[in-house]
Amino acid sequence: MSSHVGAVARKDFADASRSRLLWSIIGLLVALTTIGYVAVWAVTDDTSASEMLGFVALPLSVLLPVAALIVGYMAVVGERQSGSLKLLLGLPPNRGDVVFGKLLGRIGVISVAVVLSFLVALVLSIVLFGSLPISDWLAFGAISLLFGLTFVALAVGVSAGVSSRGRSMAIAIGTYLLFVGLWELVTAGPYYVIHDETPPVEAETWYLFVQQFNPLQAYATISSEVVEGDVFPFMFQYGLEPFEAQGMAPAERVSGEAPFYLQEWFGGIAMLIWALIPVLIGYYRFQRTDL
Predict the structure, then answer these.
(1) In a domain, 169, yes or no
(2) 55: domain range?
(3) Is residue 183 part of a domain?
(4) Which end of the chain is more exposed for a tag (fewer CB within 10 A), N or C?
């Protein structure tokens, strides 16, 4: 990589930020945050500003991955299919500059969505609830930025590693569906085959590690540590786990002290792994592909 990464990132940020669909999702995210704050303020008297931060996690966990995948899945392959990539590579930027510059540009776009949502939460906390839990607000904002970065990096990595828009879209959508709709099936299914029973509350640590490795679960687990109340992951459940396990962090499902890879902070490592590995694989494939 060279100093041209910044130039690629600035141009890519400007290009990606023109997406109407992206801004529609950002607008919906801000609107849901506003409606939720006003609705809770209007109907309850004992909800704190810190508890309301947990409410923001729901629209973020639903919409932020979708917005991030939309931002990232066409980052490299879009220019490759249009032919503009050859023109770009004919200028000073090299392939590494393109991949990592576009990654930074797309991270900038999704960061705007997160910042706008949290600024709305900040204003509404002060206006409606009379206080702002600044430490919780900052910590939760940082976790949400990491969450958005995870899905942007995943999408950009896929975009760099494939040769067509269709493949990039299919892999991005398929990965999202795996996290949201299939994770319990692909994890509890093997558990049943191995142990001849569905996972109990106190399940094997390898199973709980895999559960923790889902970025949606990781986001909910870490968020629950910095806001009042529990944050539940946006994931479909099929009844393969006991009802008592719903909403429990992996570390709470072991007897005694949990190993480090089940503790709440490890969720951040899991998200970073999902961010780094796809980008590195995509970069490796992009470096060796014939354009």
Answers:
(1) no
(2) 5-161+178-288
(3) yes
(4) C
d(CA 98, CA 12) in angstroms, rounded, equals 10
Taking the C-alpha atoms of residue 46 and residue 36, their distance in angstroms, rounded to an integer, is: 15
What is the rounded CA–CA span in Å between residue 147 and residue 141?
10
- What number of other Cβ atoms are within 10 A of residue 3's Cβ? 9
Asked if 73 contacts 167 with a C-beta cutoff of 8 angstroms, the reply is: no
Q: Would you state the pLDDT for residue 155?
A: 94
| Rounded (10°) angle between helices 215-226 and 134-161 | 170
Instruction: Give the Cα separation of 256 and 247 in Å (integer).
Output: 19
pLDDT score, position 158: 94
Q: Is 171 within a domain?
A: no
Does any domain span residue 166? no
Count other C-beta atoms under 10 Å from residue 230's C-beta: 15
How much is the pLDDT for 149? 94
Angle among Cα 20, 22, 25 to the nearest 5 degrees reads 110
CA dihedral 107, 146, 48, 247 (to 10 degrees): 130
CA dihedral 5, 8, 13, 14 (to 10 degrees): 150
**Is 136 in a helix, a strand, or coil?**
helix
Give average pLDDT by consecutive 10-residue segment, the chain, 291 residues. Answer: 71 77 80 84 79 81 89 82 67 77 89 88 86 85 93 93 90 93 89 88 89 91 84 82 79 84 89 94 85 62
